[in-house]
Structure formats: C-alpha cells, structure tokens
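Bump. Still looking for Peptidase C39 family protein structure tokens.
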Amino acid sequence: MSHSPVPSLGSPSRRLLLGSAAGAALVGIAGSAGAAAAPATSPLSSPSRRTVDRHVSYREWSGRELHVGRFSGRRHYVDPFDPTARSRSYDVATWVSPVVRPGFGLTELVASWNADTPGASWVEVSVRGRSGGVATKEYVLGRWCRYDPAQGGGIHRTSVRGQGDTVATVYTDTLATRSGHVLEQWQLVVRLMRPTGTRHTPRLRSVGAMASALPDTTRVPRSPNGRALGRVLRVPTFSQETHIGHFPQWDNGGEAWCSPTSTSMVLAYWGSGPRRDETAWVTEALPREPDPQVDFAARNVYDYTYDGAGNWPFNTAYAATRPRMRAFVTRLRSLTEAEEFIAAGIPLITSVSFKKGELNGAGYGTNGHLMVVAGFTRQGDVVCNDPASHLVRDNSQVRVVYDREQFENAWVPHSGGIVYVIHPERHRRPRPPRHERNW
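Sorry for the wait, here they are.
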C-alpha cells in the first residue's frame, strides 16, 4: 500500500494501468457515519439500473470437472530468480476448461486456483479466447507453487511480463484487453509440472476466473442496505504497521504488506492460520514478533517478478493451502452484494484507493490498499479491519467504521469491486445473483 500521491508499486494501483478511473479523478465525497439507513432490499432480485452495466461473471470448476490426463508432454524451464539455476526438465499434464461465453465482451479477467504442489512440482495458469471471431494467443496469468525453493518448493512463484500484443496484455495477474478490443469467450489452460523422474504430482482442487466489463465511472451512488445490518464478524485485528522493516527480501513489511496482513486476519478468523512450528523461522529472526503469521503469509504470497506481496490470486492460492480452505478472487457490484457474504458469516478482503480526506476516519490516502470488511452497522456503514491502523503500530487501532457511500466509492470505481473470498470448503456461500453470477 502507498500513502504517496504518485502511483506506488502496490498491487491495487494496477487499476491505474488498466485505464480505469483512479483515485486522482475523484473529488472529496461527503457523508456521515450517522446517516439515516436506506431501506433494505435483496440483491438477488432484479438488478437495479445502476448495476446492469457492471458486467461481472465468475465461473469455477472443481472435483471431477478437474480430471487431468496423463503426463504426456515435456518442458524445460530455468527459474529466473535462482542465480545458480540450470534448465530443468518437467513432465507436463494439461487441464483445459470448457469454453466460456459470458454474454458480454469482457475487457478484464482474473483467474483463481486452489492447488497442491508437493515437492518441486508447480502449476502454470493461462487464458486464451476469441476477439472479433479470431483466436488469441495464450496469456500466462501465473507460475505458482506453494513454497519457494528455500522451503523445498520447485520455483520462485511469479507473474510474467512482456506478454502484450495488439489484442490484450497482462498486468501482473489481470488480463486486460487493448482499447477497441473485447473477448467474446475465454478458456483457461492449466499445466501441471512434475520434475522428470519424480512422482511429485500437482493436484488441482478448484480453478476459476472472473471476467468483467465495467463502465469507466469515477463515482457510484450509495447502494441499498442489505441483509447484514448490525452484524459484525469477530475477525482478529492485525496491523501491517507493526511489521515495518521486516524481511526486506519480501518487500520490507509495513505498507507493502496490506494484502498478506488482510489474508492473515481472515485465516485467523477461520482458525486456519499457520502453526507455531511453521512460523518458527519468523520467531527465530524476530523473537518479539506477536503476529508471525503475517510474515509467513507475506513470504508465501510473494510474486518475484511483481516484487511484492499483493498479487491477488497468489493471496487466495496461499489461503487455500491451509487445511480445508477454499479461496478465489472476484468482483462485486456493490456493498449490497457484500452484505450477502457477511450475512453468511464470510468476511471479505477488498481492494480500495482514495485520497486523504475522502474516507473519514482513515487518516491517510492511498493509491492501492487491501482491507477486511468484517460487518455493517445498523445504519449500513462498513465495519472494517483496516491493517493500516491509522498508521499506528497497534493492533487495537485496526477496527474502524467507514461511511458506506465513501467506502463504496473508494472500492467500486477504483478496483472494480475486487474481493478475496476465503472460507472453509464446507461453509456454504450465499446464493449468487440470478443475473450474471459473480460467485
């Protein structure tokens, strides 16, 4: 996360690159946390006029749908982040999704995956589609494994730069079409990489993608109150500020760690954070560290090309490595939809951006930041676990209430309503909207 007026290298500021209306375009947003409540409504009824042009569709496969055939291919790969690495041979098996036609011309796509990568195995996730009836090339959305090589993993997990062509490009983890181009359909390709001569075989548990086509707006109206008024989930509070200067090799803690800090809070809520033996390397280096799970998460979501801990699907893929957990990235159209998850007992991690003074009570401005939505007041305002902690190194400062309209405008126009959804496998998600299901 950055508090400077120029775009930082933090993850959510990708929206600036993607050509969306970013924080610099917003003017101050008036609003009061004590405003009268708007009438409650259901987001599962007919969509309002203001949301029908926010096209968002999420599609996911799991279980038998992820059957992978034999390892019939062969590939060589050199880890670009290992100075001593040589080309290594891998046996390759491939899973290809059905072709998805979302019913609109998509301009952005973010994939998610939940996978096991034992030993030195890893996975590569790509997408291809059709634009104007012509097939595109494959764009790589991530090369991923659970651990880095120093922990016994196969490669340094990484996004891939330099993939742009006349149709589309990839900004870290987001496929974005060029101006004047859309994709009418898309298809995921996942390659499972097993070191030749070993039996260390990756396993897919779920694979999905969010496709969207959003209006280029700088402001949205306050959404109607939904089903979660007065409900606040007991999500533990961790401050990213207490980690300033930690582990420079994984982006030095502090403001760069909003994403892993938020992910750690939600995993702690579900009782699925790392064990003491897993975080022993943290407490060895930092004996007084009260929240070693945050440092652990930062290492295990780190993208070595992006040089940061804010890669969206790397965070959800990490969360899904915890026992019996599932996680994915999608976009929501409004806080009314977010309330459906809170009502179902599922906290959300949101990507926001705002100038100082545009979000009352924050005390800072940011070009990109992740925070947890933990609930809603009876008036419909947003109860957040904000790891920026008013820029104070204190876990007790993390819980804050933000004005609904101000928060919605820091979130929906800027990141397009990006959320991480993290929950146990057997915990039921809320029923998705009938129109363009986005979860």
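The first strand starts at residue 55 and ends at 62.

Edit: fixed formatting.
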